[in-house]
Write a structure and sequence with these properties.
This protein is α/β, with parallel strands linked by helices. The chain is 34% helix and 27% strand. The protein has one domain (7-262): Rossmann fold, CATH 3.40.50. It has seven helices and twelve strands. The strands form three sheets. The chain has a six-stranded mixed sheet, with helices on both faces. The chain has a four-stranded antiparallel sheet with strand order 2-1-4-5. The termini are far apart. The structure holds adenosine-5'-diphosphate and magnesium ion (MG). The site of magnesium ion (MG) has 5 residues, from helix 1.
């Protein structure tokens, strides 16, 4: 195993409900880099995101995912989260009855406890403290200011009746508080108007400035988002494989030419 690569997806094959979706996907990233995955609908972008986090419906049939030398595929989703992997969902689910603030505080405390336990052979030391309420409020207020949401946001039920823009802000609030090492953002631009897009992107950029070692994998259908969150590398996913990789100019080319020029020709039917 080559441990010098920070994050690597190797020859990944993934099936959903018995149907092969990813068919030998390769991707590697160094710490601090911003990569974009673009591709038409149904090409497997969300499948890649879910496979990185360990969604149980996505079956890896072949290949590896390695992060900082560790075999990610052997870990449960919560272990992956503790390792520093994070996914902002394309379609966040509502949790009526659980407020944004309670959800975030529970997540932060779960992270603190799990990290402490992992450092002590799986046994939670008795002296591990939850985050103090004032400290949590401070961090939450700071994140809410960055994402330009007002105070009432924290006391609403998570994603319950949220607009598209509010749901995406709630995802990035989680990112702000959990401070991942590798953030996967699945179509964070979908459902956002131009103002919301700018605010959410700026939020991501501020978090990246604060932690320049954080890697970001931006999944998007449209070039537009990449005007705000600027990737160094762009990969095009077609039919479960990376069909093309390049620099930021590749995204502009896709904007102009669409995806068809990268598709395999259909087999001739005689
Ligand atoms: N739960 C599921 N059951 C069956 N097929 C699925 C499921 N989820 C995704 N797929 C199929 O997998 C393919 C890739 O989906 P997805 O990864 O969501 O693509 P993208 O995010 O690029 O639009 C699509 O053909 C989709 O219909
Ligand atoms: Mg998707």
């Amino acid at each position: 195993m080559d441990t010098s690569i920070w994050f690597e997806v190797k020859n990944l094959h993934v099936s959903v409900a018995g149907k092969p979706i990813l068919k030998g996907l390769n991707l590697s990233m160094n710490a601090g880099e911003v990569h974009a995955i673009m591709g038409p609908n149904g090409s497997g972008k969300s499948t890649l995101a879910y496979s990185i986090m360990g969604h149980p419906n996505y079956t890896v049939t072949q290949g590896d995912i390695v992060f900082e030398g560790k075999n990610v595929l052997a870990m449960k989703p919560d272990e992956r989260s503790r390792l520093g992997l994070f996914l902002a969902f394309q379609y966040p689910v509502a949790i009526p009855g659980v407020t944004v603030a309670n959800f975030l505080r529970t997540a932060v405390n779960a992270r603190i406890k799990a990290t402490a336990a992992a450092q002590h052979d799986g046994v939670l030391p008795a002296d591990v403290k939850s985050i103090s309420i004032p400290e949590f409020r401070k961090q939450l207020r700071d994140a809410m200011r960055i994402l330009k949401v007002d105070d009432s946001f924290a006391s609403r039920y998570l994603n319950d009746g949220f607009s598209g823009g509010e749901k995406k802000r709630a995802e990035i609030l989680q990112m702000a508080l959990l401070k991942p090492q590798l953030a996967v953002l699945d179509e964070t631009d979908s459902g956002l108007d131009i103002d919301a897009l700018r605010i959410v992107s700026e939020g991501v950029n501020i978090l990246h400035e604060r932690d320049p070692q954080m890697g970001i994998l931006v999944i998007t259908h449209y070039q537009r988002l990449l005007n705000y969150i600027r990737p160094q590398f762009v990969h095009v996913l077609i039919n479960g494989q990376v069909a093309e990789s390049g620099g930021p100019d590749l995204a502009l080319q896709l904007e102009e030419r669409g995806y068809d020029w990268l598709r395999e020709p259909e087999p001739e039917v005689k």
